[in-house]
Structure formats: structure tokens, C-alpha cells
Design a protein that fits this description.
This protein is about 40% helix and about 15% strand.
């Protein structure tokens, strides 16, 4: 079955490994998409999209949150070397404030898919949401633990964002972004109380907006 002929109603029910199931149906260019950074008080939301070869194997690759930093770095290098196509995109704090975090996350994932070359026949998305794209797509609950391409995307997004926050730490060391990556830790909240927000902070988020001045 070619991807062009797949209708959305034909995508359900999902197998325990949807990616493998669709490959058995004859779909070859399958993109896995995931995002990281919906919860932090500072920094962008980052999404990655990855297309792997049918023969790709990455033993131990799973949801990036379940991996040690060293394992994530190792898998990040392997995926970049072996993927048929990958793309990483970010939506920054100012746009998150305008769009809202869900819409910003979906935009980042859509941009990641649209910048793949070659592009996908089918897009598998971690979570319950559909993307604002014209590609045939399927949301997959816990997809980063069920689909290899989504797991690969989760690693690329996580490693990219962590490195970005380490860079921002050099610009704003008083917040220790290298340590907490912008999440609402006790240390981060204490820094916000002392220093107020910087341009990387999401001023509409609770924990930040309380320390923003008028206007």
C-alpha cells in the first residue's frame, strides 16, 4: 500500500509498534516527530523530525527522558550519522507567549516535518495531537517508547535544547540554565525572585509573570 493511498481511517487501530506495522504495509519514508520544552519557564520549545532506514537499529534507544545524558549524546551522534533525513526546529519564548505553549509546540513539530529532505510519506507524532500539515499523519500515545523514529526525534530535540540552554547559561549565569535547563526548580524560582526575568523567560507562565513589571 503506498502512503499516498492511506486514508486516516486506515491508520487505526495502532499496533504496539506502529512504525514496524506501517513498514509491513509498504510505507518506507516514515518520519517520527517529538518535542521537548513545553514545561520550562525559560527557553524555546524544540522539535525534531527523523526518517530512519527500515534497516536501522539502535539497541536501547527509547524516550530521551529515560536515558542518561551520556547515552543521549551517544544516540544523538548515531542518529545524525545514520538517519535518511532529520530536522530540528525551535519556537522561542516570545512566540510561545503569543501563541500559547500547545500551539507553539505543534508549530515547532510542523516546521521540523516541513524541513525534512527527503520528505515523509507518513508522519508519526508523539502524543495525542495532530499537526497543521498536509502530510498523512498519525498521533501515537507514548510514541517515544513505541516507535524508533519518534525515540530518535526525542533524543535529537532533547540534546539540542540542552546544549542551547548551556549556551544561554554563558549569557545569563545568574539563573544557572546549564543546571536546570529552564525548568521550575527551587533554585530557578529563587533566581527569578532575586533577578526578575530575562529575555529568555516566558512571561505568561506562572512563576515568571509574578516578577514582571507593568507592561
Amino acid at each position: 500500500m503506498s502512503a499516498a493511498r492511506i486514508r486516516q481511517t486506515e491508520l487505526l487501530p495502532l499496533a504496539s509498534d506502529p512504525e514496524a506495522d506501517f513498514r509491513r504495509q509498504g510505507v518506507s519514508l516514515i518520519a517520527g516527530v517529538d518535542e521537548v520544552g513545553r514545561g520550562p519557564l525559560a527557553g524555546p520549545v524544540v522539535a525534531a523530525a527523523v526518517i530512519l532506514a527500515a534497516t536501522s537499529t539502535f539497541p536501547g534507544l527509547t524516550d530521551s527522558k529515560l536515558l542518561t545524558p551520556a547515552r543521549r549524546e551517544s544516540f544523538d551522534l548515531q542518529v545524525r550519522q545514520e538517519a535518511l533525513s532529520f530536522s530540528i526546529q525551535a519556537v522561542e519564548a516570545l512566540e510561545i507567549e503569543t501563541l500559547g505553549i500547545l500551539a507553539a509546540s505543534l508549530k515547532a513539530m510542523a516546521l521540523a516535518v516541513q524541513n525534512l529532505n527527503p520528505g515523509p510519506e507518513l508522519v508519526l507524532i508523539d502524543g495525542p495531537w495532530r499537526l497543521p500539515i498536509h502530510h498523512t499523519q498519525q498521533p501515537v500515545i507514548k510514541g517515544d517508547q513505541r516507535c524508533l523514529a519518534i525515540a530518535a526525534a526525542s533524543v535529537l530535540a532533547k540534546v539540542y535544547r540542552d546544549r542551547l540552554m548551556q549556551h544561554y547559561h554563558q549569557l545569563y549565569p545568574q539563573y544557572n540554565f546549564a543546571g536546570h535547563k529552564g525548568y521550575a526548580t527551587r533554585e530557578h524560582l529563587a533566581a527569578l525572585r532575586r533577578w526578575g526575568p530575562c529575555p529568555l523567560h516566558r512571561r505568561t507562565f506562572r512563576g515568571v509573570k509574578e516578577w514582571c513589571g507593568p507592561g
